[in-house]
Amino acid sequence: MCDVTRDTPVRKLRFSALRALSDLLDPQHAWRSVATDIRGASGEPRYSQQHIRRFEAVVLQGKSPTMEMLFDWGTTDCTVGDLVEILLRHQLLAAVSVLLPDHSTCHASAGSSGASLSTLQCEAAERPSEACLQACMRPEMITKPVSRPVVMEPDSSSGPEENTWSTTEEGFYTFTHRELTVMTSGWDERPVKHGGCLLGAGGFGVVFRGSMCGGTDVAVKKLNPLDDSSLEDLKTQFNQEIQILRSLKHENLVSMVGFSGDGQHLCLVYEFMPGGSLLERLACADGASALSWLSRCCISAGAARGLQYLHHNNHIHRDVKSGNILLDEDFVPKISDFGLTRASANHSCSTVMTGRIVGTTAYMAPEALRGEITPKSDVFSFGVVLLEILSGLPPVDESRDPKLLMEMKDEIDDEELSLEDFIDGKMQGWRMEEVERMYDVASRCLCEKKNKRPTITEVLSELEDLHHKHPQSSR
Ligand SMILES: Nc1ncnc2c1ncn2[C@@H]1O[C@H](COP(=O)(O)OP(=O)(O)OP(=O)(O)O)[C@@H](O)[C@H]1O
Ligand SMILES: [Mg+2]
C-alpha cells in the first residue's frame, strides 16, 4: 500500500485496502460517522438517512457497508486525502494508518476533537513498525508513563531491569516484547501441567500463561502470521481487537489487560481464566470432575448473556464455540476472541476462511458456510454448544457416526437415539424435564432456516428460566 498518497482517487484503492478499512469501520457502525460527513460538490451532505439505511441493509447480504459506501463515493473524484480528513475528524486513526501508514498520523492535525496527534509519539524514521502500530491507536491508547513504575522480576539471562509497563486511560497496559518474554519464562512451550507456560494454540496464534509481578496471572496470545497473511493484515486484526475490546465490556466477556506490538511480535494480553475452556471442561481434561447439571445451566445462561450483549452492540461473533467460552475460578463463563474473528487472516484445520467466510466448520450454520453473516449464525453455533453441554461430546469426532454433533439432533428427532442416551453419563443432578427444555432450545437454535431460529434474547430468557429453577443456583 506504499504507493497510496493523499492524491490517490478512492476508486483506485486496492481491494485489500478496502477490506482492511471495512474491518475497522464496520464494527460499531464507525462508517456511519464517515458517511454523514461526506459532502457533495456544493458542500451539502452527500448521503441522506435513507442512503445510510441502504448501506446498512447490505449487511443482511453478508456485505460490508463501508465498502458499499466507498464504492459509491468513489464514483466521484474524491481522493484518499479527502477520506483521511474525515477519518481524522472522527479520530479513526487505525483506518488512517491503513491508508497512509507512515506520515499522515504524524503530521496531520486531529481536527475538531482538539487532541493533538503529536501525542502519538510517532517515530517513523527510527522504528517504522512500532510507529505504525502506535499510529493505529487512538491518542488515549498510546503509552503514558505510570506514576509508579512496576519493577519486573529479573530473568536469569538478561539480568535485573526496570520494566516500562504503562497504562492507557482505559487501564490497558502496554508491554514490550521483552517484558512478555520474561513474564512467560522465555515463551516456555512446555504445557502448563509440565511446568511450562503453554496454554494452547488456535487459529490465530499460541496462548501462554504469563505472570505479572505482584502475582497476577495473564494469558498472552502471540498472534502468528501464516504464509497467507502479511504483517500488515495481522496489524489490522490486532488493532481491531483492541478497538473492539475497549468498547465492549461485560462480565461474560473476557477482558483485555494489555498488548504489545514492538517489532514483528504482536501480542494480546488477557485476563487469565483458570477454569480453561468449556471444551476442555466438558472433556474433563486433566482428570477434572464432570460439571453438574446446575453448573451447566449456569454456564449456558452466562454465555448466552455475553452473546446477547455482543448482539445488542451490533457485533456478530462468527466463531461461537465451546473453545471460545472460557471459565473463571467460579465457573463464570466469558466469551473470548470476539475481536479476532472479523479480520482473521489465517486459519487452522478447523477454521474456514474463504473470501470473507470465517468460523469453525463443526459449528457453522448453512448460511454462514455460504459467507452470509448474521446474528442468527451465532445462535446456530450456540445451539451446537448447548448440545455439547447436554452430551459432554465433542463437536466433531472422526471416529463417531455421525462425525458432527449437530447431526445427532436428526437422530434424536427421528427417535433413533433417545435423549436419555444422548446426555452426558458423567453429569450429576439433572432432571429429564429440564434437560428436555434445554434440548428444545438447542433444537430451535439449530433450525436450517435462520428466520425460524430464536433470537439470542429468547434463548437467554429460556436458559435463565431454567437456571433460576434451582434455588441454590450459584455455580
Ligand atoms: N484468557 C485465557 N485464559 C486461560 N486460558 C486461555 C485463555 N485464552 C485462551 N486460553 C487457552 O488457550 C487455548 C487456545 O486458545 P485460542 O483462542 O488460541 O484457540 P481456540 O479458541 O481453540 O481457537 P480459535 O483460534 O478459533 O479461537 C484455549 O483452548 C484455552 O485453553
Ligand atoms: Mg479462542
Summarize the structure.
One of its GO terms (cellular component) is cytoplasm. This protein has 475 residues and is an alpha+beta fold.
How would you describe the overall organization of this protein?
Helix content is 36%, strand content 9%. The chain is α+β, with helices and mostly antiparallel strands and 475 residues long. The protein folds into three domains: 118 residues, Death Domain, Fas (Orthogonal Bundle); 128 residues, Phosphorylase Kinase, domain 1 (2-Layer Sandwich), CATH 3.30.200; 191 residues, Transferase(Phosphotransferase), domain 1 (Orthogonal Bundle), CATH 1.10.510. A hairpin with a 5-residue loop joins strand 4 and strand 5. The N and C termini lie far apart (51 Å). About 16% of the residues have low confidence. The structure holds adenosine-5'-triphosphate (ATP) and magnesium ion. The site of adenosine-5'-triphosphate has 23 residues, from strand 3. Magnesium ion (MG) binds next to loops.
